[in-house]
Write a structure and sequence with these properties.
Shape: globular
Largest sheet: 6 strands, antiparallel, barrel
Structural class: mainly beta
Number of strands: 8
Strand order of the largest sheet: 1-2-4-8-7-6
Strand content: over 45%
Radius of gyration: 18 Å
Distance between the termini: 44 Å
Helix content: under 10%
Number of domains: 1
Number of helices: 1
Order of helices and strands: EEEEEEEHE
């Protein structure tokens, strides 16, 4: 069953999973694994005075706010649900036409979105940003009440931090 949130999906997450490890010229080299695209319903947390709100980048304490010469921005906390998953090629234009993509519904936490994973993230019509997965399970670790909620919502909770660079 498709998620009741699917008509309101407003974000995409693209992640290149980790592949096998091999030895090349005496060095251990990790190959890129499959590329996954997740369709999500996400919300940006925008309130101030708490750790999950906006954080100015660079911080004023970092060289007087001039650490990134000529650029500044905000780091935000994004929270929502990932609803569907697709496997795409590494060169696939994931911000373009998605009509030919075969989606599967999410029924459990996905290993490709483990905490600490760096992903490409796009919400609405904003530019693509690099984000970090903070959590990909619910308040109860994906069991108990979480499993009941996921069955009804048709997706799994996802929390990301991502920065928007401004000029």
């Amino acid at each position: 069953m498709a998620s009741p949130l699917l008509p309101y999906a407003n974000a995409l997450v693209r992640v290149t999973s980790k592949g096998g490890v091999s030895t090349v010229n005496g060095y251990l080299v990790e190959a890129a694994g499959p590329v996954y695209l997740f369709r999500c319903f996400m919300k940006r947390q925008q309130y101030k005075g708490v750790s999950s709100g906006s954080v100015k980048q660079p911080l004023p304490s970092q060289l007087g706010g001039e650490l990134m010469t000529g650029a500044s921005g905000d780091q935000f906390y994004y929270r929502g649900f990932y609803l569907q998953k697709a496997t795409v090629s590494s060169g696939f234009d994931w911000r373009g036409d998605l009509s030919g993509v075969t989606w599967t519904n999410i029924t459990a936490a996905d290993d490709a979105l483990r905490a600490g994973t760096r992903v490409e993230f796009a919400i609405g019509t904003q530019d693509t940003m690099t984000a970090t997965v903070e959590r990909n399970t619910g308040v109860y670790g994906g069991t108990g009440i979480d499993s009941i909620l996921y069955a009804e919502i048709g997706g799994v909770e996802l929390q990301l931090t991502g920065a928007e660079v401004l000029n």
